[in-house]
Structures are given as structure tokens and as C-alpha cells.
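Give me the fold.
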Amino acid sequence: MTTQAPAPVPPITPYRSSAEPTARDGFLQLLRAEWTKFRTVRRWWSTLVAAVLVTVLISLFSASSSSFSSEHAAPGDAPPPATDTAGLAVQDAFHFVHRDLAGDGDLTVRVSGLTGKRPEQAPGWAKAGIILKESTQAGAPYAALMMTAQHGVRLQSGFTEDTAGSNTPAGEARWLRLERSGATVTGYESADGKQWRQVGKVRLDKLPRTVRAGMFVASPSRRDIQRGFGGASAGDRPTQSTARFDHVRLDDSRSPSASGSWRSEDVGRGPEAQGGGPEVRGGSTRADGAFTVTGSGDIAPGAQELDLVAAGLSGTQLGLVLIAALAVLFITSEYRRGMIRTTLAASPHRPRVLAAKALVIGAVVFVAGLIASVVSFVFSQRMLRDNGHLRPYFPEWALSDGPALRAVVGSAALLALIAVLALGLGALLRHTAAAITAVVVLFALPLILVNGLPLGLARRLQEATPLAGFAIQQTTPRHDQVATVCSPGDGCYPQGPWTGLLTLFLYAVAVLALAMWRLRKRDA
């Protein structure tokens, strides 16, 4: 009897789920799906193109309507302003008591009694000290070591460089010394004239062998701002300050402790003369080897009345309305038609759906915003130059310049974050008109209020609201050693550009997180 071999067992096919993976590939599919939704709706593309056109046109209109005349800054037959080595206007006006310093050497004095004379209280950045200057011509290179009314001892040069020394009150006497060795100038300070502390060093290239060395006093003008909802006005009031200099010793390599006559003169054009009025002049007296010097003016960078880059990107303030409307419609249209249920049924991870929408709308708006910002910048800068915004009063910006490039790319990021914020509000409110109104109120209301509120409150509003993001467009440099008024009416933001953009980013993330939380709770 024969036995049959058992029939072969067919191989078992492993089970493979037909469900889509929910990890990285699933999110990429969500991105593709949301991108497909966006690109297939014509009216959304039309809104995006309209936003670009509005941004560009408003920026160009703002640039074309802004004009500047040098007669405004230097009226009449006044000579052109002092300029630094970069060819930009600077403030270089003070009273100077000086002698020649030939070759290497040092100048030592004791400074005391820095007080205001007009008015009685000296401005915080009133300066009294010693200076080595290439010549008495305004704008000439210099190194100065000084006492200030409220900011202690400072070593300054180049109109922008500033090194802090001790925080000595202006009422206390302080010994100051400047030593020159070739092109290097070193500043020292002392409480008793015996033990010296180095404040810092500066290098003045191409310094001639003989320079002017001596004592100076400068007293910046005070700026008064009157604010109201009807507008704002600002006016500068000249000041005068005075200080006493004794134990004056000037030694040079050619003739140590050489005796010679001290010359006293005003350097540059003082306050009021720059505005067309009578010049406020300084003076000096000498008694028992001590000098009492009175001066006005300042040694500082020139004030720019307009941020050219920010002005050329001003169209973003209106373009954001269309961007916000587009982002809101990207989510609320699905709620209005009931398609949100289909979308959520296809993806069990609801926060991912909103995250995919945020990435798509953010990326699309960033690209469109970058195009609008580049076009606005290139053509607006040309218009502003044609309208008189030229050196020495204004710098010439190119797209390759660091601050300008940051402002242009930052404006695109600004619009992208506004789109994400609007998307989050749309998902929260689930009503098109309400969400768009909320975005407009978040930006338009602070813009209105900052022009009428007291200055301190207006600055806090700029720092604490999404409006802070517009700080990314600022390019006017700020210098801690210059007493300037950051006025919201001039488009000035108190925080730095990246801090402002970070504030807007945090708002967008917070609103998007709230929207995700609500989306997990209820479909519609």
C-alpha cells in the first residue's frame, strides 16, 4: 500500500494595512493636499496677486510723495553740514580751548563742576573733557575723553564709537588723560591724579604729525514733543553747559611741558544757526591757571529725519489686509461649506491638518511678500534719491547692504507670520468677517493709538502688540551715546528689529496653538 505525500502548504502572505502611514509620509501628503487646494482656487491667487500689487503701489506712492531739500536742513547761504569719513552728515559743534600737539605726547587735566547754564540742569549727554582732533574743521577725525552729566566717563571717536568708563557723577572732580602714540590714542581716568585706570584705545589712521589738543564743552539741544490725536510737533531748544578745568598739562615729544598760548574758538555751527536762527556761542575764561569753558552743540552722528528703507516698504501696512483675508479664507471656506469634516476624516491627527495649512499659506505668502518687498525696495529707493534724499543727509542703500537685506527679507517674513496669525484666528472664530476684522484691529488700532497716546504708553503698545513685527523694517542706526527721541509718528520702534519680529512670531504661535486645541475638541 502506497502512502501519498501531504499536499504542500501554500505560503502565507503577510498582512499589509491599506491605511496611510501617520508619520512623516502622512504629513507630507497633507502638505501636498493643502497645496493642491490652494493652487486650484483662482480667487485665492487673485487675492495674492492683489496683495503684491497693493504693497508695491502704496510703497511707491509713499516714496514719490516724500521730498527733501537741503535748504530745509541748511537754510539760506549756510555752508554744507559737517561730514564724517563716510560722507554722512554729523554733529560737530562745541567750544574748544586748544594748542598744537606735535608728534606723540599726552594731555592731562582735572575736570569738575559740569553744570547747565541754559537751562540750569545740564542735559544728560552734556560733555566736558579733553580731545585730540586732526584740525578745528567740523567733521575732522578726533578722539575725546569726557565727563558727562548723567552717563559717567566716556571715550568717544568717529562720531559713533563709544566706550564707557567709570560711572562718576558730574558733580565729582575727575582726572582725565589722553596719550598719543602714532595713530593710537589711549584714554585714562583717575580719582586722585596718581592711580590711573585705562578707559580704552582708539586708532586714528592717517593722523597728521601735528594735531589740536585741548579742552572742550558740548551741550546737546533738548527736544520737546507735543503729541495729540491730531498729530505731533517737535522742537529743539538749545542748551549751554559749563565746566572747570585745572591742573592742565600738555606734553609733546618735541618739547615736554612747552609753554604756549591757548586758543579759544567755537568749532562748527552751533544750535539755532543750523535752523536759520542766531547761533548760540560758547566761550572761556582763565584765572590762576584754571579754565572755565562754556559750550553748546554736540559731537555725535547726524539725525536722519526719515528711514529710507522703512519708507520704501510702507506698503506692507495695507498689503497685510489682503494677506489676512486670504489666510482666513483658506480655513473658513471649508467651515462654510462643511468640507472641514471631510478633511478631518481623512486625517485623524487634527493638529497636523492646521499645521499643514499654516506651512502652505506661510510659504506662499513669504514668496509673494519677498517679490513685493524686493520690487518695492528697488524702485522706491530710486524715487527717494530723485526726490532729494541724498548724501550727506541720507545714506544710499543697496539690496546687498546688510540692514537693507534684513528689512526686505524680514518684511516677507512679517507678512508670512501675519498670514499664520490670521489662519489661526480663522480656525478659532470660524467666521470669515470676524476673523478678518480681528486681524485688522490687532494692527490698525495700535497704529492709530500710538500717534495720540503719551510717548511712554505708545512705546509699550509698540512693544506688546503684534505691531512690534514692523520693527524688522528699521535700518536707522541707534547710538546709546546720543539723546534721541524715538517717536512713533516717525515710524520708530523702541525694540530691536529681531525682538519685534519675535514678538509677532510668539503671537502667531500662541493663536495657532489655541486653534489646534479647539480643533481637537470640535469639528465645526
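Confidence is low (pLDDT under 50) at residues 14-25.
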